Amino acid sequence: MNKDFDQKSQRAAPDGKVLERIAEALERLSPPPFVEEFELSSSANAWVWKQEPDRLEPVDKVNRVELSLLVGIGQARDALVENTRCFASGSHANNALLWGARGMGKSSLVKAVHAQLMNPYPKLFLVELHREDLASVGRLLSLLRHREERFILFCDDLSFSYDEHHYKSLKAVLDGGIEGRPENVVFYATSNRRHLMPRDMIENERSSAVNPAEAVDEKVSLSDRFGLWLGFHPCSQDQYFEMVKRYCAHAGLDHDDEELQKGALEWQMTRGARSGRVAWQYFLHLMATECR
Questions:
Q1: Cβ atoms < 10 Å from Cβ of 283
Q2: Rounded to two decimals, what is the model's pTM?
Q3: How far is Cα of residue 7 from the mean position of the Cα atoms in its chain?
Q4: pLDDT in tens for each of the 292 residues of the chain?
Q5: 172: which residues sit within 8 A by CB, 6+ positions away?
Q6: Which residue, 85, 135, 241, 248, is the most exposed by fewest CB within 10 angstroms?
Q7: What ranges do the domains of the chain cover?
């Protein structure tokens, strides 16, 4: 009987190649090791945080416009430049939330301010963090905490829906936790929503909760952790025309002002909106027309 059992065990035992394939499959399924060190190339001044495995990928050419081309946001521009300059020089600075009307240059301002200051402050880096990767932000901070460079963590179009809980991961980054936010890291976010969540979500919490104040406080406490709030509002007709004119002048396009305004107005009406993004799209249309 023992002889028969040994023979069956030998037949059932997998060979070495099968075991090797199983081990490789388990390695693919296991969490990737956390990268504790990385090298900052001299050519890149902006990075994107990626997961699986954790890494910072350099961006050789950042998609941005010059600071002088941003019209109608002078107060927000000056405030963010000053806050970033203080941070880059090694002083204290606030996390910043840029909120308000869509297409009015919120993300463009963050990238333009970094471009303006990275020459006098060569150790100032921009790191983009996608909203879906917020759960890993703690690992990113551990990677950056003990470096001598200064990092602007940038999250574009930050908002949360009803069933999301990533905002709780972000709270400790902004203001909280035992370690706190590293001194060499500041967090800039853009959003169309002032409190980063739908208004009806907050109102529903107020109407259905046993203690309405506590329920609402839980939802809006994230935006409260941004020390610097910069509001962006719809532009006027004159500001819209000025945006178009500056884009054309910067590119060297020679157009009659009257014809330019007429075309910009028609373009605005077809889009049903007036903003810096619409002005830029009309400028691209003019550039395409020149190439015909």
A1: 22
A2: 0.79
A3: 62
A4: 555 545 555 555 556 677 777 777 766 665 554 444 566 655 789 999 998 888 899 998 999 999 999 998 999 999 999 999 999 999 999 999 999 999 999 999 999 999 999 999 999 999 999 988 888 888 888 889 889 999 999 999 887 765 556 666 677 667 656 777 889 999 999 998 877 766 555 455 555 555 555 555 655 677 778 889 999 999 999 999 999 999 999 999 888 889 999 999 999 999 888 999 999 999 999 999 877 6
A5: 138
A6: 135
A7: 46-232, 237-290
Dihedral sign of CA atoms 221, 223, 228, 232 in order: negative
Residue 226 CB contacts under 8 Å (≥ 6 apart), including other chains: 94, 95, 96, 97, 174, 187, 189
Dihedral over alpha carbons 179, 83, 146, 142 (to 10 degrees): 50
CATH classification of 46-232 is 3.40.50.300, yes or no? Answer: yes
Structure tokens at 57: 């990928």
Residues 6+ apart with CB under 8 A from 253: 286, 287, 290
